[in-house]
Request: fold
Amino acid sequence: MTQHEKSQNFLSKIKTNHKKRFSGDSVFRTIILLIACNIFIILGLIIFKITQGAWLSIQTYGIKFLWGTTWQPFPPEPTAPPSFGALPLVWGTLTTSAIALLLGVPISLGIALALSEFTPKSFNYVISFFVELLAAIPSVIYGLWGIFILIPFLQNNVYPHLQATLGFLPFFQGTIRGSSVLTGGIVLAIMIIPTVSAISRDVFAAVPNSQREAIIALGATRWEKARIVMSYGRSGVIGAIMLGLGRAIGETMAITMVIGNSFNMFTSLFEPGSTLASIIANEFTEASSPPVYISALMEVGLILFALAIAVNASARLVIWRSMRKTKEAEML
Amino acid sequence: MRSYRFRKLEDRIMISLAYAALIIALIPLASILIETVGRGLSAMSFNLFFEEIPPLGQSGGGIGPAIQGTLIVVALASVMGIPIGVFSGIYLAESRQSRLASVARFLNDVLTNVPSIVLGIFGWALIVVAIGWSVIAGAIALAIMMIPIVTRTTEEAIKLVPSTIREAAIALGVPQWKTTLTVVLSSAKKGIATGILLAVARISGETAPLLLTILGSRFWFSGFAQPTAALPLAIFNFSQSPFRTVDLPRAWGASLILIFIVLAINIAVRYYTREKYG
Reply:
């Protein structure tokens, strides 16, 4: 074999080796690509299946479903058709979520600031661990605790005082019920605290130290420094709050167990109510007939899906933008 | 300009409020843990773990089928969800620049935030309509909850693997796919295991999707196409019982077992990953 032949041989060996390697890689890439495409299939199927199930209701009630205020699967007169409308459910979802944000956000921001600005580092680890445990507790246990510990406590020690002081407002009038919209909102507030506080803490931790050093050099107090940190991370905090809102909207079991499950356009927060999620949990398994009943429940699910996705997607967008801003500032 | 004394006072007040917020948030946690442990322990007995669930209001029996059902549904969901999640995560980490990957990453986040009850409806429409209330339907709904969590954590874990390790393997002539499957995965295995465990903990406590798919039952597991019991469902059913003296202790007993499983996983994960945070 000449030198040239030898080197040719060697080259072709490398080439075949390379080819083999290349084909192994491309097979692997194709496989993981196909598996990764599951996400498109799953989301597509979810949307398709639920829309298909809700189609009968969409056709029967049209857009009026959104502001209808009756929910009668079995109307009192046997000849009348069943009628469904989702407005009180949307109202219940929005009100409980609003209460959750009103109570939960200040507490979460307090926690986030304490952890990122005020507490010593060694203490941080333990505290954030406990706050995260709050997120790990299953929702049904929140519900059980809500029914048997939180409700008796609120009903005896908090609600009467609340009505005595703020009773002139329409939302605090009427008979005090333990299983009520307000209790639902309070349970949701507890449940969103870990989400909102963890993300806000990360947002605050990402604020460049130059900001803190600058304001401290000007003679600021610790609280004034914290205010600068908050205003710098404002958009990230808004994102965190919206993620909390997304969690509150989708929360099902705990709220089903404490809200009282009655279909009404409440004005007082002491009245029982229902949310989009709770009515599904409460009625779905019993809604075998008429067919439009289950379809209406699926349309409720579709509204819930759309609402949750819209809130969460905009939250992600806001957080992503704020993080990008912080990164750019760091590069300067 | 506000006076120094005012600013100092404001500083004190606001910092105390921040600490107060910390304490307020920990009160519910403490209360839940204390009540569950206290009330759950007094309901503990040997029979609780090994007997079938009696009808509401009847004394005796246990919650054996609920424990068994939870283990089976979670195991089945994991078998489906973990491989899909891990491989999707590998794909997202390996093709960071591609547009398809960034769309998939976004949709993955979207899927994380689909309310769990909606996944229950999906499981119902996909499976229950065809074959009835079944373990399979519940496991599919839970697997869909699991996939985005596992995908995300796998991607993050692989991104943390230093590129020098990957380059070293490739320089030795190992094909890229083999590098990924052996070298990269084994350096990222801790992070991936963390994500898997957290996902398992999360789905173990889920109730809403199971309500619409496996329905609940009082008896032992009888097949994958049959309804079955699960701990969260049992807790929910007991809590709705009008016979509180008989059924409530069972609810707390089941809660204690469930909270023990979920918190044990979380604490273990925290313990093994503590260097990362501390």
Residues 79 and 258 of chain A are 35 Å apart (CA to CA). The longest helix of chain A spans residues 291-331.
